[in-house]
Amino acid sequence: MAKVRITSTGTDFAHSVSSASGHQLTSDEPPALGGGNAGMAPFELYLAALASCTAITLRMYAQKKGWELGRFHAELESSRDADGNFQVHRTLHADGPLDDAQWARLLDVVERTPVTLVMKQGAAITSSRG
């Protein structure tokens, strides 16, 4: 499974995030929330995880089926409904020659990507002192 580490070295909100696989990024908050906008905000990272899994899963599926997905991108947006419930809407775009049946199948597959399932089902989160 995945493992990341976040390091805070100052009093601002910018943090260095590194993965066990050797990748790094910076997270921060926008100025309106007291940050310096040095990196993606936490909810942007949340959406980025879902978008990445969406793109990878659909590309893998299309290749397995021999479908030409072409240039693909997904737009994800989060919001809260009137009751305060968090919602994510995902819009998919591909310029490959996909017919309606193929699109229907891709929209079905995207509902079951690994990250989609964890986000929909929730995850047990525990904390401890190091």
Question: What does this protein look like?
Answer:
The protein is α+β, with helices and mostly antiparallel strands and 130 residues long. The protein has two domains: 4-33, no CATH class; 42-121, 2-Layer Sandwich (GMP Synthetase, Chain A, domain 3). It contains three helices and five strands, in the order E-E-E-H-E-E-H-H. It has helices spanning 42-65, 100-110, 114-121, and strands at residues 4-7, 15-19, 24-27, 72-80, 86-94. The chain is elongated and about 55 Å long. Residues 1-27 have a biased composition (Polar residues). Residues 1-34 are annotated as: Disordered. This is Osmotically inducible protein C. It comes from Stenotrophomonas ginsengisoli.
Radius of gyration from the CA trace?
Answer: 18 Å
Please give the count of helices: 3
Quick one: overall form? Answer: elongated
Strands in their spatial order, largest beta sheet: 1-2-3
Beta percentage is 15-25%
Structural class by SSE content:
alpha+beta
Helix content: 25-40%
Q: What's the CATH C level of the largest domain?
A: Alpha Beta
Might you state the CATH topology name of the largest domain?
Answer: GMP Synthetase, Chain A, domain 3
- What's the N-to-C terminus distance? 20 Å
Proper CATH architecture of the largest domain? 2-Layer Sandwich
Order of helices and strands: EEEHEEHH
The CATH homologous superfamily of the largest domain corresponds to K homology (KH) domain
Average pLDDT value? 95
